[in-house]
Write a sequence for this structure.
């Protein structure tokens, strides 16, 4: 008795019919419905069954044969291939010579700051609310739009999109990035833009370009963990500069003019969430010129304006010697891994060599797809959907903080970006609150991760881009209970300036 194939054609689908059929057959092979050696129906019969032309089925079978799912021979029929099996795993463990790995490890590999996250205690709470993730939640990731762009790129550019990209990035993307920067008042010639694999790589290349082991590099007292790690890996001697809500303390900076560079995030300081004021930006640029210290401006939160007020001018808009780094990870899609650096021309050629050394180029396919995304205006459409949602999440978080947090805990209204910083009263240690909070089911970033010495105990960072509003509120309630109980227990027996990671 002839078996019906059960394959069907989706009249709504955009993919060609032969592709739909070959994909359905591949699915069945993958799931074992069509086992090895199974004979597929003759093309004429399957064509009648699904109501299509026989040539369409022939193309579907050819498609499957090209991917080695099936083998066909003239007059023999089409059979599911014998798929190569990987050799069975050896039942006894491989012999190990006992190399002295700890003595072989480099100083950078074993650097204390790189392993901090691993040394934090981990909770097994089964409903942990995660207020540490710095990425959009799944509902705010434009998967369909990206798929359309990738399809378009493969259709139009075909294999040309599948090779290595030019070292400095695709010309079209650099042009579009320059236009986008102009919109936010950052002057940039496309020739001076280098596309990088995430802004993390841009920071890495900049650090390698400027820092010799032992050189002083200045960072804010509370700063981005990833920048601490990159500078540490470059062998920098990190100098922590105190500051206030307006930015780094200028008189403290006058004492660190031996530094090669100062790393800053003017628009949404990570972890404190506030921005550097315009007056302080101008003072920083003047200091950089006077002291011959390079400014590295990390605009990782570009476009994440929550209150529709224009940010003060970028440092790069005040001085063309500023090294400006940004990314599409936070405003769009982290998985693109596309960031960029706008650099002074004198540095460009060295930065480019370093970027090329690091990865031989950022994915051409993803650069093409991002260029298509920007060209279609999808970024603006995406922001018009995501920004109101971030605003609602920020408001829900701040309302919950006002309602539930003890008065001793301080925070400021966040105007841009996706992080909120809680300043704890001196009698509490951030690492102890962090550990208790995790046990109570809420994960936050302790200040120690954001300080050069690992000793900052004054605060906790919360992000509001990843969890939905109701879980943000529940997270604040859990954290507030922990803090209230800690306050009731009285001061910790450990000194508040102790280094958490050495304790
Ligand atoms: C301040 C800051 N800069 C740079 C990065 C690196 O991001 P990406 O490499 O995804 O562009 C991050 C990531 O969290 C960040 O927080």
């Amino acid at each position: 008795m002839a078996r019906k194939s059960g394959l069907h054609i989706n009249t709504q689908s955009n993919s060609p019919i032969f592709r739909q059929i070959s994909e359905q057959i591949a699915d069945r092979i993958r799931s074992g419905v069509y086992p090895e050696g199974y004979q597929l129906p003759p093309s004429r019969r399957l064509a009648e069954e699904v109501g299509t032309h026989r040539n369409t089925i022939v193309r579907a079978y050819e498609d499957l044969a090209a991917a080695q799912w099936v083998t066909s021979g003239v007059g023999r029929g089409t059979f599911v291939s014998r798929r190569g099996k990987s050799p069975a795993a050896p039942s006894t463990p491989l012999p190990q010579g006992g190399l002295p790995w700890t003595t072989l490890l480099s100083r950078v590999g074993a650097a204390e700051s790189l392993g901090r996250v691993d040394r934090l205690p981990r909770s097994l709470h089964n409903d942990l609310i995660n207020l540490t993730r710095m990425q959009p939640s799944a509902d705010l990731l434009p998967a369909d739009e990206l798929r359309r762009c990738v399809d378009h790129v493969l259709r139009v550019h075909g294999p040309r999109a599948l090779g290595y990209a030019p070292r400095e990035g695709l010309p079209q993307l650099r042009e579009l990035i320059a236009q986008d920067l102009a919109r936010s008042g950052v002057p940039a010639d496309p020739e001076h833009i280098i596309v990088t694999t995430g802004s993390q790589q841009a920071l890495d290349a900049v650090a390698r370009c400027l820092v010799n082991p032992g050189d002083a590099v200045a960072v804010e007292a509370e700063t981005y963990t990833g920048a601490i790690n990159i500078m540490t890996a470059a062998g920098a001697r990190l100098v922590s500069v105190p500051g206030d809500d307006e930015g780094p303390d200028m008189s403290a900076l006058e004492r660190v003019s031996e530094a090669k560079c100062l790393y800053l995030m003017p628009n949404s300081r990570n972890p404190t969430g506030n921005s550097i004021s315009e007056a302080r930006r101008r003072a920083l640029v003047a200091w950089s010129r006077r002291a011959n210290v390079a400014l590295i401006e990390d605009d990782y939160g570009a476009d994440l304006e929550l209150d529709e007020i224009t940010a003060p001018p970028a440092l790069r808009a005040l001085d063309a010697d500023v090294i400006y780094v940004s990314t599409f990870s936070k405003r769009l899609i982290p998985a693109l891994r596309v960031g960029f650096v706008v650099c002074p021309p004198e540095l460009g050629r060295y930065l480019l060599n370093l970027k090329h050394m690091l990865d031989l180029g950022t994915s051409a396919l993803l650069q093409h797809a991002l260029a298509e995304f920007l060209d279609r205006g999808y970024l603006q459409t995406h922001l018009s959907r995501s920004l109101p949602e971030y605003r609602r999440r920020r408001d829900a978080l701040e309302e919950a903080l006002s309602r539930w947090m003890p008065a001793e805990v301080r925070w400021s209204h966040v105007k841009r970006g996706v992080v909120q910083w809680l300043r704890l009263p001196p009698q509490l240690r951030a690492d102890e609150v962090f550990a208790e909070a995790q046990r109570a089911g809420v994960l936050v970033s302790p200040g120690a991760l954001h300080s050069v010495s690992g000793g900052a105990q004054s605060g906790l960072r919360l992000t509001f881009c990843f969890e939905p509003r109701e879980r943000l509120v529940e997270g604040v309630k859990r954290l507030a209970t922990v803090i209230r109980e800690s306050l009731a227990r009285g001061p910790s027996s450990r000194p508040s300036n102790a280094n958490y990671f050495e304790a």
